[in-house]
Design a protein that fits this description.
272 residues; alpha/beta; Spore Coat Polysaccharide Biosynthesis Protein SpsA, Chain A; ten-stranded mixed sheet; disordered C terminus
Length: 272
């Protein structure tokens, strides 16, 4: 019997993208899933769009928060509602390749893996192929994760039965990174399925100096509050995270030609 996958999808004012996100899930070759969409009190047509899909497919489940909870609040709500053996994450503006679930579930089932992820590529706000991709490490441990968040939220899948009850720390930023750390404390290692199976919608906005400072602050707070590290260790890993972030961005740009040769635009045209 195929295991059920619970898909966690937080959304806020996503009327321009949520339809494509839902379609990329409905079109999966693996059909045993529940898509738990949690709306964080959108004030546009997001909820109306979701309800149209919900009428046509009972695997789509919509919940609206009573008060704003941010991404962490919405994800925590969805995780509580999850009933599947596996939990996967897909934000309301990102996309999956049609065989994402099928390949990743088989990978985890065949190899008894509790935490997995994949590589992913980028599109812009208008859905244009940026011809860049994030190449993730073959495996991660808790310590490796402390050195930098090396996996994309939209690619992660974990075994809910093995991990047990878990709550995403209520942080304004980096709450997904904090969750990976908590999971890896329990299961020790995570492994990559070596393929590009997800599409991340990348904003054109660059990080201003003020935003960079806030990002550093969020990293430091995460290490102090979630990982319970000392001030010195938190500062060390915050600096390391920053170096790795900009280093990875440089590597992605350098991989441009390889991406075009290996994965060509036509491979993703049909899902965006």
């Amino acid at each position: 019997m195929k295991p059920l996958v619970s898909i966690v999808t937080p959304v806020y004012n996503g009327e321009k993208t949520i339809g494509k996100t839902i379609e990329s899930v409905i079109n999966q070759t693996y059909n045993k899933f529940e898509m738990i969409i949690v709306d964080d009190l959108s004030n546009d047509k997001t909820v109306d769009i979701i309800k149209k899909y919900q009428k046509e497919d009972d695997r789509i489940k919509l919940f609206i928060l009573d008060k704003k909870g941010g991404a962490s609040g919405a994800r925590n709500f969805a995780i509580k509602k999850a009933t599947g053996k596996y939990v996967a994450f897909l934000d309301g503006d990102d996309l999956w390749k049609e065989d994402k679930l099928e390949k990743q579930v088989k990978f985890m089932e065949d190899n008894n893996i509790y935490f997995s992820y994949t590589d992913y590529c980028y599109i812009d706000n208008d859905g244009n192929d940026l011809k860049q991709y994030r190449k993730c490490p073959k495996k991660v441990s808790y310590y490796r994760m402390l050195l930098g968040d090396s996996v994309g939220c939209l690619t992660v899948m974990y075994n809910r039965k093995a991990v047990g009850k878990i709550k995403i720390p209520e942080l304004k930023k980096r709450n997904d990174y904090a969750l990976w750390c908590l999971i890896l404390k329990k299961v020790r290692k995570g492994y990559k399925y070596n393929d590009i199976l997800s599409v991340y919608r990348k904003s054109r906005e660059s990080l201003s100096s003020g935003k960079k400072y806030k990002l550093l602050k969020y990293h430091y707070q995460m290490h102090r509050k979630v990982n319970e590290l000392s001030t010195v260790s938190s500062a060390f890993f915050t600096i390391t995270n920053t170096i790795n972030y900009f280093g990875n961005r440089y590597i992605r740009d350098r991989k441009l030609k390889k991406y075009e040769w290996c994965y060509g635009k036509e491979r993703y045209e049909k899902i965006y």
